[in-house]
Amino acid sequence: MASTMKALVSVGKAAEVQEIPIPQPGFGEIVVKTHYVAQNPTDWKAVSMVPPGRTVGCDFAGEVYDNNGSHWRPGQRVSGFVQGTATDPPRGAFAEYLVIEASLVYPIPDSTSYQEASVLPLPIATAIQAMFQRLNMPEPSKPAKTTFPFLVNGGTSSVGKYAVQLGKMAGAYVIATGSKKNHDLLLSLGADAAIDYNDADWPEQVRKKSHDGLEHVLDCIAENGTPEAIAKALSPTKGGHIVTLLPIGNVRPQVESINSKAKIESTIVYTVFQRPLPYKAFDNCGEETPDDKAIWEKYLQMIPGWLQNNKIKPNRVKEMGTIDDINTGFKLQQEGKVSAEKLVYRIA
């Protein structure tokens, strides 16, 4: 086996393909030979923030190359996500080989392609953390006996599409916002109501659909006034709980002034790795989160069955080329030219 591999590595505020040493697994870790990777907004954002020499990328699908004594079989198809550009320990998925904890991958069912598998892990893990840990919604294994309203703002985002499906499995009446052209997509994923967030009165439309009973919200947009708009859609008597995927900064006072019983917090999924995080602007970074890894490990056991039974449909895939083409995808995402689909790249 060669001792080096191709990887997308940070250089200044950009990234380039370099030849670097193949990573070696530590205790409890495996080496995966990467077949496909999927792009997330966090990838290009990280590139602009980290020093040179970091391997970029989170979502991957591939085969076990070195099982390092774990229960996985060499050659077994697996998928998961890592904290791209992390250094302690070093992590990054946009490479020919990667290292990950043996407990943090799922076996890819035969019915699922590498491309489809690669677009699942980080966004569905984010939805799971936000919904079932932060919002304390009923879990799909024990759905609510009485339907309750759940709003997914930005339902056609990568996280939003999984949140819609998980919300339906949890027994919710799912209201999803998105542009009108994507309403059929949202309804096909299980949304009970789709609302155009370009309408000036969309919070009032949500209130009508939820009969003034909205208490659970996942805000996948979390900027340009969306938390304040959501506060207007919450139950006027009970308030509600909003979880955002971006830091909320000084928005909390405005949200509470609109609805005094509203609770708002942000979450970042990298807490599943149980390592110190530099993202102190997120509400869940200042505390120990021992449950986060265990919850993700639990759901990793469920994902193969959901895929096999078509309970979870992977996000729409757009194949973009190889590792040499990832920077093109970064540019498209920065320019807002990626909508309701995931860009994937063949690595091997």
Notes on the protein architecture:
The structure is a single chain. The chain is of the alpha/beta class. The chain has two domains: 4-120 and 314-346, Alpha-Beta Complex (Quinone Oxidoreductase, Chain A, domain 1); 123-273, 3-Layer(aba) Sandwich (Rossmann fold), CATH 3.40.50.720. It contains ten helices and 15 strands. Strands 3, 4, 5, 6, 7, 14 and 15 form a seven-stranded mixed β-sheet that branches. The longest helix has 19 residues, at 290-308. The protein is globular, with a radius of gyration of 20 Å. The two termini are 15 Å apart. One of its GO terms (molecular function) is oxidoreductase activity, acting on NAD(P)H.
Features:
single chain, 348 residues, alpha/beta, Quinone Oxidoreductase, Chain A, domain 1, Rossmann fold, 2 domains, 7-stranded mixed β-sheet, 6-stranded parallel β-sheet, 10 helices, 26% strand, globular, oxidoreductase, ADH-like_N
Any idea what the CATH superfamily of the largest domain is called? NAD(P)-binding Rossmann-like Domain
How far apart the termini lie comes to 15 Å
Shape: globular
The fraction of residues in strands falls at 25-35%
Helix-strand topology string: EEEHEEEEHHEHEHEHEHEHEHEHE
CATH topology (fold) name of the largest domain? Rossmann fold
Number of strands: 15
Q: Which CATH architecture of the largest domain would you pick?
A: 3-Layer(aba) Sandwich
CATH class bucket of the largest domain? Alpha Beta
The helix/strand class is alpha/beta
Alpha plus pi helix count: 10
Secondary structure: helix percent:
25-40%
Mean pLDDT: 95
